[in-house]
Amino acid sequence: MAKKSKKQQQSGGTPATVALAAAGVPFTVHAYDHDPSHPSYGEEAAEAMGVSPDRVFKTLVADVDGALTVAVVPVAGQLDLKALAAAVGGKRAAMADPALAERTTGYVRGGISPLGQRKRLPTVLDESATLHGTICVSAGRRGLEVELAPDDLTELTSATLAPIGRA
Question: What CDD domains does this protein's entry cite (predicted)?
């Protein structure tokens, strides 16, 4: 998990929520009790918040031709690695080593947020996000989600919109 500054520790914020607040972007934080035995972090979040899995997006880190890339896709589906590679002009993509993803982003698996990462990585957001007024993504730790407009997420992460999710 990313180190917190004194200000973050006092406010209880994560790097993701601090980045959103600093940008002046409207957002809502949703906290829930994380169950470590649940088979899917994303599905658990959707169930706990009572939100359609189509509106809850998971943040995955992939290796595209040797470069780490963030993919943000609905928890209801899977990441299409070929589509991700194509979206960033690459040839091959594979899931990144989890330990490398954690070190690079500053977050733990199941709590990786596309926002406030330690090292800013190229980001691709599944275009289905634009079908919703708001979507939910990890706020930087297990059991914490942030709800915001897909346009705001796209702008803050300089994301490319592309069809990278599949059912």
Answer: YbaK_deacylase
Q: What is the CA radius of gyration of the chain?
A: 15
Look at residue 122 and give its three-state secondary structure.
coil
Count other Cβ atoms within 10 Å, centred on residue 35.
13
- CA count, 13 A, side-chain hemisphere, 56: 23
Which pLDDT tens digit goes with each residue over 119-160? 999 999 999 999 999 999 999 999 999 999 999 999 999 999
Could you write out the DSSP letters of every residue in 19-59? HHHHHT---EEEE----TT-S-HHHHHHHHHT--TTTBEEE
The dihedral through the CA atoms of 14, 15, 16, 21 has a sign that is: positive
pLDDT digit string, tens, across residues 63-85 = 999 999 999 999 999 999 999 99
